[in-house]
Design goal:
Length: 147
């Protein structure tokens, strides 16, 4: 197993009123030049957790962090108008909590759990990545408060 120091949470940045199937996700990632889905796990609206990339294989989900991270993506992240919003369903929330707990146990608690946006550059150099410094909204909720 490769060294893991981050578990990075993502949203698919798709509208809450439309399905985004694993097939669509894979096709979109292949169009971007990936060798399949870049995340290790994908959580559907009904809470189904799909293993989409072997943990032993580096992801393709967060530039500069792929070699030593696990990527988890949930379906959604945009409201019906296409605006960023926490659209997770109760089954998605439960599945995400359970998956992160399982992974942390496997890693002996030695990984930082964060959102993709939390790895944006600290532009003002104060040691914190504030909302005005985010390069993206993903995953549309505060991972540090919830996980």
């Amino acid at each position: 197993m490769r060294r893991i120091d981050h578990i990075i949470i993502h949203c698919s940045a798709t509208r809450e009123d439309r399905d985004y199937t694993p097939g669509q996700l894979e096709a979109d990632h292949r169009r971007r030049g990936f060798l399949g889905i870049g995340y290790h796990y994908y959580i559907r609206r009904d809470g189904t957790v799909l293993s989409t990339r072997p943990l032993a294989q580096p992801g393709a989900h967060c530039r500069g962090h792929n070699a030593h991270s696990i990527g988890i993506c949930y379906e959604g992240g945009l409201d019906a108008r296409g605006q960023p919003r926490d659209t997770r369903t109760p089954p998605q929330r439960a599945a995400l909590r359970a998956l992160v707990a399982q992974l942390l146990k496997r890693l002996n608690g030695e990984a930082r759990v964060c959102g993709h946006r939390d790895l944006s550059p600290d532009l003002d150099g104060d040691g914190q990545v504030e909302p005005e410094e985010w390069t993206r909204q993903c995953p549309c909720f505060e991972v540090g408060r919830e996980l």
